[in-house]
Amino acid sequence: MLTRPAGSRLLPQALDDHAASTPQRLYASIAREADLSKGFQDVTCEDMARCVHFMAQWIKNNIGISEKFETLSYIGIPDLRGAVLFLAAVKAGYKTLLPSPRNPPATNISLMQQTACSKVLYAAEVAPVIQQIENADNSITCVAVPSFKEMIESNPEAYPFDKEFEDVKNDPILILHSSGSTGLPKPITMTHATFAVLDNERNLPKTPGRRNRDYSIWDFNGGGRFYTVFPYFHLAGFLSVTVNPIFTEASSPVFGPPQVPPSGTLLKDVFRYQDLRALYLPPSIAEQLILEPGGIEYFKNLDFLCYTGGPFSPVAGEQLSKVTELCPLYGCTEAFQVPQLAPSAEDWAWMEWSPHFKLEMEPSEDEKGTFELILFADKSTEKISALNHNLPGTPVYRTKDLFKQHPQKPGLWQYYGRRDDIIVLSNGEKFNPVPMELLIQSHPSVAGALITGTGRSQAALLIEPKQDLSPEERANLKERLWPLIEKANVLAPGQGRITNSKFLLCSSSKPFVRAGKGTVVRKLTERVYETEIRDLYAKSSQSPTQRLVMLESTLKPVFEVASISRFIRSAIADTFPTIDQLSDEDDLFVHGLDSVQLAEVINRLKTSLEQNPGVGDMSWLNTRVLYNHSTVGSLSKTLFQFLNFGSVPTGEAISPRVERMDAMVKRYTQGLVPAHRPSKTSTGPSSVALIGSTGYLGPWTLASLLDNPDIASIYCLNRSADASERTAAALKKFGIYTEASFAKVKFLECDLSQPHFGLSDASFDVLSSFADVIIYNAWNPNFSSTLPSFEKPFLQGLRNIIDWSATSPKLPHIIFISSIAAIGDYSKLHPSSPIAPETPLQSYDVAMQMGYGESKNVAEHILSAAHKTCGMPVSSLRIGQIGGCMEPGNLGAGWPVQAWLLGVIKTSQALGALPKGVTAVDWMPVDALGNIISRIAGREAAAGGVRVFNLVHPDAKPFSVFIDALKADGRVEDLPEIPLSQWLKKLDEVRGSRDKEQLARYPATRFYNFLKSLGDGKEDMRFVVENVKEVVPEGLGEITKELVGIWLREWEF
Fold first, then answer.
1. Does 501 lie in the same domain as 624?
2. pTM of the model as a whole
3. How many domains does the chain have?
4. Domain of 109?
């Protein structure tokens, strides 16, 4: 019987009520020892309340009472102390942070810093974990708590919690962290009202003829036990061990041995010694038991089996659905479980949302046929949605979780994966690796499978073997696993398929990083294996099943075409078995050679050829050659000419432009030496060196850095002596200058071309000692200059920056302000997949045909080489056209004249026509751009590696938005619009004149080469912008005709 109404109860109070009214009500049952035959200890509500009274008094005596809901952290093992500590801390006035002991120390320290936590309670069993935290941050006080035996055997006085729900419902009491599936976990603070939502779910309206599937399923009539393996620091585990025993009528969790990993074998033993009514666990554990003889019999007496953390395999699910009810649950830390209606038994794998819950399934652009779940919160959802309380003020929450709809039954949904799981290959093709990973890791020898490849040309597979494999089993695992990989490949698009050479068997000493619920944390695991992944893609791969093929030796002075033909067939047969069925004149692409196999074919040919004595440089053998010589006969003749006469196919040799760029890269990467790694990563506010604080972007970047609480000091390095005055004047003009904030900026005059930038030893020593981040924002924005003109001082300066970072004790993160011109010709070279990737450069050819773009491309190559040798974190920010401001308060700042755009306007007036489709209006607002740079400076160094950001507006508009803004302004006639190529022809007719008056009428003449490089226009040029979305999760406002009109107000034309 409830002593207070459901939906308005407080957890510590409700436990005390149970202890008083039904003291023998079962709270939980815990294994006495690892050997379950030794029995279980039943813990009653009276026992549990006593433990809580004891620990509340213990906290008061050892830590003190909190009047301000300070954060108190607890790290322990999966026993009842997690629940006890939480309930006791609430009584003592604290909110409790429950980080995972499996997290790296840096992650848990980050969580503590984010939640202002300086006190950690811990179980003695995790002392080594605590030692690592103390070693990393000596400002954190760590105190061991008593054993559960001491708690339950105590005899304390009652520690009351006499509060009224309405008075304290918004008080913070718990902090769990997000799973961290996409990176560092984020803390989510919860209140009493958060858990009242669950208590209130039994009050949700019923749908006629249907059964609710919500938190009320745990109301076991007459009580009952359920077994769960989720730990107390994971949402599912916390609810199971803390909320279920108190708020339900009445479900009691069964605990296995806390130090024994959950498995099918352990589940079988629990079944033997406990009378279970339900299970709540990941599917993999139940599937392990099903594989045993008679394993399915154990599930027959269950009321239901709830699962999360992944789907059941179709075979296992079908078996289980015949003997018990399967309940796939969906929820997230931010919003908790989404209430459902129970579907028919045949639809066991599908979910149907409650019609009384506010949500929307929005078609996703990430993958066709998928939908993102969007949740809504307002006044009407306060009692039924945890979102109202966990993320107050968030009316719309994009879960980033994707679902597929039942093909015949609209309204039934199946979880598909995270938007963050989606891999975007370098050609823009997207696919979800999760179905492949789940299939592969169903192999009994595999602990985990992870597919990577974002920004790469093809996918790669990382396999985490089970720890108990013998050396022989580990050695032949790839061979045993390959048939399953081939089955998984059927689920993927062409470039998502796994090939022999893109397979990595991971070390047992470097286990995959996992979230509390046991799922692999993709980005953190990729970070752990960053070097191995890079090497996997970089090397000329030779899998154990592949063999080197040698050219047939001959006494003749030349290689014969016939022998070369046999060599080609033999070399690529492993990759493209269809070759055996084709004649020398059959087109390989017509007969199924795809882009993944193409890459493998080139790799195999190069590797095999290079093993033959006397074979020269094979760098010319690339995809372009194979496309042009796509039959065995044609390719044989091409190799014949090369092997016998050294001739490379016409038009496919390295271009002079590429040679110049490559020579420049080699010049500025000579003599790089590995850097000493910093002994300790800085965890406090960082110091930033901003090279180039003047101009247009510089002041906005500085303003955002000043506004960033994670940045303590800023050093501005400029070539001009009056940079301080110019920068301050710009900030005042923008209305964002304050003397107080400007006080943490120090200006230094420098010469980029000189060692140590021409600074005094004292000044440079300060920079070297304190700077955590270097932002390089100094470049000549001259589209008419040639590549050599950017060498001094800009490329010289870049090398000096690299040397600075490499010799600094902090190995500072280099942020380079690059340009989309560095990849401006990508779509021209990749017409079938024109979306420019957000990855480190692999080619010089993709640079726009002008010195500016070439110089930025060269600089990015230099930085990638520097990272590879020296190890400093590098971020290249490819910036496109910078627009005016987006934020309403900044709109008065104005938009400096963009010379090439003004040149187009004035020239159009003189020519009597406007060009159309010149470029996409993906112009990044300058205030947003400054904020993005500041955020990257504040957070990306920890990510390490080489990061690339295509900083263009994710919601690109056609060039007509700019034209329409011009016409709406009234200062430009309603001129006809013609293709850019025709417009340039009209300009050609007048641009030969040297008359100054003529040049003034046609100022676009100055930018003729740049405009010519755009061909018929770059309006369809698109960029991958996933990293931008990661840095700006809140999104950017839309670029409208009206906004562009505001930007143009101060221009004179």
1. no
2. 0.53
3. 3
4. 14-195
